[in-house]
Amino acid sequence: MGWFNAWVGLIWFFLFIPSIKFFFAYETFLQDSFAHTLVYQVRIEIKHDSSEIKIITEKGTYYHYNKNNYSLIVESLNSNKPVEIWYDKEDMNIVDFKINKEFLINRSSLGIGLYFIGFIISGGMIVLSTILIIKTKGWGTYELLEKYRKNNL
Questions:
Q1: Distances (CA, A) of 60 to 35, 44, 54, 92
Q2: Does 108 reside within a domain?
Q3: What range does the domain containing 106 cover?
Q4: Which of 125, 128, 121, 131 is CA-nearest to residue 19?
């Protein structure tokens, strides 16, 4: 059973890799799930109740719903610089903006916290699995039981 736990524990790489990308290669993290486009002309419309910001460009219309970022978005988009918009293809919701090789919207503390917890847990499980594989020489507990069998005389 030990070999099974060790090898299955390596499945935690599926959580570990996105966690590393989230902290150290954010653009690569976004490329896995979202599309991006470079736009030059931007027009902004905000609903009267501030529930939605509509960004109209020469390549389409995009939407953003986080009120905390409205003033930052409006100020940055009015600078007349090329803007790279990262968005979800299905509903055209904006994930982030990139202006002058820098991402505009700060990552949320909830996202940072969840990915940090995922990073710690998955990293710990990968280390533990690697130790189990090394200790059992990759074969598991059956061979260890054979090696250290008690004599029942």
A1: 13, 12, 10, 9
A2: yes
A3: 2-146
A4: 121
- CA dist 124 and 111 (Å) reads 20
Asked whether residue 152 is domain-assigned, the answer is no
The one-letter code for the residue type at 149 is: R
CA distance 56 to 59: 8
H/E element holding 103? strand 102-103
For 93-144, what is each residue's pLDDT tens digit? 989 999 888 898 888 899 999 999 999 999 998 888 878 777 766 555 555 5
Q: What is the CATH number of the domain that holds 52?
A: 2.40.50.340
H runs (alpha helix) in the chain? 2-9, 13-24, 26-31, 70-77, 109-135, 141-147
Number of structural domains the chain divides into: 1
